[in-house]
Design goal:
This protein is an alpha+beta fold and 116 residues long. The protein is built from 2 helices and 6 strands; from the N terminus they run αβαβββββ. The protein binds zinc ion. The site of zinc ion has 8 residues, from loops.
C-alpha cells in the first residue's frame, strides 16, 4: 500500500501543473522512477485511476520510465551506474572497491505531462 501516498503526491504535482498551464484534460503522465524503488507499475496506475477520478487527470495513462541506480565509490569517489539485477557485490569499475554509497535509485518524479 506504499504506492498510495506516493501517487497522491504525484497527482498533486500533476494537478498543480495542469492548472498553471490551463490544461483541460491530462492524457498521460511521464514519470521517472528509480530502479531501486519498489513501486509497482500496475499498482501505481490503479491508485492513480482511483485518486484522479472526477478530476482533469481522470483516465490519464502513467508512462513509467525506470532510471538507473547510481553509486558512489567510497574509496576513489567515482560515480557509476550499478546493475542491481546481478547477485554479486557491486564493485567500483575504477578501483575495484566494494565500498559505496547510493547517489540515486529510489527517487520518483513527474517528468512531463501530455494534455489537451
Ligand atoms: Zn573506486
Amino acid at each position: 500500500m506504499h504506492e498510495l501516498p506516493v501517487i497522491n503526491s504525484i497527482l498533486k504535482v500533476v494537478l498543480k501543473h495542469a492548472v498553471d498551464n490551463n490544461v483541460n484534460k491530462v492524457i498521460a503522465v511521464h514519470l521517472q522512477v528509480g530502479e531501486l524503488s519498489d513501486l509497482e507499475d500496475k499498482w501505481m496506475q490503479q491508485y492513480f485511476d482511483h485518486l484522479a477520478k472526477g478530476g482533469i487527470a481522470e483516465g490519464a495513462r502513467l508512462k513509467i520510465e525506470r532510471t538507473p541506480v547510481v553509486m558512489k565509490c567510497s574509496d576513489c569517489g567515482d560515480a557509476y551506474i550499478a546493475d542491481i539485477k546481478q547477485d554479486k557485490a557491486l564493485v567500483c569499475p575504477e578501483c575495484g572497491s566494494k565500498k559505496n554509497s547510493l547517489i540515486s535509485g529510489r527517487e520518483y518524479f513527474v517528468k512531463n505531462l501530455e494534455a489537451i
